[in-house]
Each structure stands twice: as C-alpha cells, then as structure tokens.
Amino acid sequence: MAAQLRVRGVSKSFGAVAAVRDVSFDLHPGEAHALVGENGAGKSTIVKMLAGVHRPDAGTLELDGTALALTGPADAKAAGIAVIYQEPTLFPDLSVAENIAMGRQPLGRFNTIDRAAMVAQATRLFTRLGVAIDPNRPARGLSIADQQLVEIAKALSVDARVVVMDEPTAALTGVEVERLFAVARSLRDDGAALLFISHRFEEITALCQRVTIMRDGKHVSTDLLEDTSVDEMVRRMVGRDLDALFPKQDVTPGATVLKVEGLTRDPVFKDISFEVRAGEIVALAGLVGSGRSEVVQSIFGVDPRDGGTVQVAGKTLKPKNPKQAMAAGVALVPEDRRQQGLVMELSIERNVTLPRSRSLSQLGFLTGSSERRSAKEWTERLKTKYGRLSDEVGTLSGGNQQKVVLAKWLATGPRVLIVDEPTRGIDVGTKAEVHRLMSSLAAEGVAVLMVSSELPEVLGMADRVLVMREGRLVAELSRAEATEESVMFAAMGQEATV
Fold this sequence. Notes:
By secondary structure, the chain is α/β, with parallel strands linked by helices. It folds into three domains: about 5-90 and about 140-240, P-loop containing nucleotide triphosphate hydrolases (Rossmann fold, 3-Layer(aba) Sandwich); about 240-330 and about 415-498, P-loop containing nucleotide triphosphate hydrolases (Rossmann fold); about 340-395 and about 405-410, no CATH class. It has 18 helices and 20 strands. The strands form four sheets. It has a six-stranded mixed beta sheet with strand order 6-7-8-3-9-10, sandwiched between helices. A six-stranded mixed beta sheet has the order 16-17-18-13-19-20, with helices on both faces. Strands 2-1-4-5 form a four-stranded antiparallel beta sheet, with helices on one face. α4 (about 115-130) crosses α5 (about 145-155) and α14 crosses α15. The radius of gyration is 24 Å and the shape is globular.
C-alpha cells in the first residue's frame, strides 16, 4: 500500500543542539504507526514539524507524493494533518461546537455565523465517534479525556487524513483510554494514517501495526510490531540492555521519620494514619480520584486539613505551612511538574536552586557562580540533558524537566522525599534512572513516600503498599503480600483488610 505521508531525511537544530538528524519513515492509510524513544530523542520535534510549528532545516515531508511546505499550523490543517496533543488546546470560554468549528464557522444569512449549523455539525461528529458530549456546553470544565475527543472531532471536521496523537493517554483513566482507543481504531479503519506517540508499550501493542524507534535525534529502526518484541524495542531505544527497571536495594528500615495520624479533609479524605521509616519506600496506591495526591499535598502543607497531625522526626508540623515542612526536611515532587514543580520561564539553574536561594546567597545576594555550581552538580548527578544551564527549563524534554524537579528537591538534603507519579510521561530509560535514584536515597536513610498509578512501579519499588479507596486507607500490604491482584482488589472494594 502506498504511503500517505512520507518523512524523508528531515533534520532540525536549535542553536548548537541538533534535535533531529536525518530521520525518515512512512505513514500508511488504515494503519497506526508508533513513534517511540527516550525523552529528548526528537519525537516532539517531529510532531511539531508535521504540525507546521517548525520547518525542517533539511529533508522533506511528502503527502501523497507531493512535497509539503508547511509555514504554519493552518497549512498543516489545510493539508489534512491533525495533531492531538497530551494537553488539549481548546478555548475554555467558547462552546464545544465553537471550538470544533474555529476558523471554519458556517455562515448563514447576512454573512453571520450559522450557530444551528455549527451545533448540527458537532452533533454529527460526536454521533460518528459514539460519544455523548453536549455541543452547546462551554469547553471549560471538560475532563482531559473529553477535551481530547473534542480535538478528534476537530480533526474529523476537516477530513484529516493524517492524525498525530502525542501522548494522548498520559492523564487518562483505564476506562477513558479504552474509549479513546475505540475512537482511534475507528479513524484507522476509516482509512486515516495514525501516528501514535506513547511511553506505554501495552498501548502500542494494542493499537499499532508498525513502530519507528528514535534515539538521540536519529532514526534507529522501523518494523512491523509482529516482527519485534518489547525487550528489543527497549534495547534499541536506550542503546543498551536495562539491567533492571526496578533496581530495589535491600535496606533494613530505621526509626520512624514521618508519622501521619487521623489526617482528614472533608470530603476528600478521612482518618488517614501511617508511618514511613528511614530507608523505607512506602507507596500510596489506588484508583484515580481516591485522594492520594490530596493526602501528600496536605502533608507538605500545600492543601489544608480539617483534622489530624503530621510529625517529622517527632516534630509536629503546622497545617498549611510548606515553609515549615521544608525546614523540617520534607520535599515534595508534585505530579504536575509544569504547573507546580517548575517556573517554566526561568533558567534551569534558577529552578534547581529556588528552594535554597537563601542558603546560597552571600550578604543577601545570590551570585551566578554559586547558583551555577550547585545546579551543575545536581543536574550532572541525575544525567540531565541540556544545552546550557542558563536555558529556560521549558526548552527541556519532559523527562529532563522531571530530573530538574528532582534535582531541585534532592539538593535540599531531605529527610522525607514525597514523589507524586515520579515517572509519568517519561521514557523507560529515564524511569530506570529515577528508580535507581529513589533506591539509593532510601539506602542513605531517606524516608520515601511514593504516589503511583503504575502497578509495576508500585510492586517493583515499594517496601510497603498503602491502598486508598474513596478517600480512605483500606489496605496495608507488605512487599511479599503485594501483587497486582491484591492491590486492585483493595482499590476496587473487593477486599479491605487493614
């Protein structure tokens, strides 16, 4: 079958950094094609070239054998290329129908917008997708899953022949992922060429027929999924065998460092009590919405609480007081690194040193040399890839942004490290590095509290697993007791043994 879209020898550099070098692959109609690689491999740059955001420095894009010269996103849309990002870009105060028709609103009498036709078009598209979304409701308040379905409806409205899905499932629940995949399969079966970017191999094998692997900005291989394996894909992505994705060291836990008693915030969570000892990794598991993130944010003092106490090394922390928590040696790596973990407009070095700017200052002034020296030490320790430390942190890949967040807090020398979804949206190689770092910190006596929705991560890294359901702690499992079945039974209410 002839290729719908051909990427031929494309290269793109940003200053001295070569993001993509001589990459080629084909997208075929009626086929889902996975694009995988570690963070920083060049996947996002490829996506932005297809979207018309970046122009290749060399090489060509060809649609149905004709070279494309995309000068902006409008050109990509006109050519039938639709890009659905991990974070949808809807106008929140416009209706769903208005978002779908943006830039192509149907006109009625007197050259005014025909709102009835606009709503009718949206209704037809949602019927085709098999989803129930009110076209008249504002986009504000839609779940991430529904926002992505609106983006897919936009793609259908322009008869997109190439649909690019960039990490579309990162923030979705299992049910939402299945619904999205049903829609994606429908698009594929109707003849669209899908390019699917994901770090989750189970999703790639469930949806895709072909896979292209990138490493360090270069094309490594393109294969049919049936001709390769997950192990082989991982080896090609990282250029080496991963000796262990979960390198858990055996550590004898010491004294209790973090003690939580009766922590309550109605109606989000109630009567949460547990301890974390020095050298121990404790996982908070449960379904999305069970209250795990809210609990750790309350422990750190970001969110309020209605009752209960939090103690660190015997000292009681005041509610809603992150400054006191930091002074006591608590560090929180939040789930949303872009919104809560980093100041995207500031440099890498400034982000790394933000919590310690006072201690690094001399006579009240923060010198560039002390800041740079400290930032360099920690970014190198975490093997962070960047151009210059003075670059904005927003220029880094997702995995390297996560490393900067970790560097920022690890440099404070914490007694208690709280990590909320530490490896969400990062590649398998970086995951192994983060896991190795968590294990080595525990071996040094740090008490680690981890929130994770990935069961293999929970089972591979935790000494104990605490399971939450509907705002309550319903089970505590030792490492020997914790299995996928026991954790999920507790999370879903089929077993509740504390």
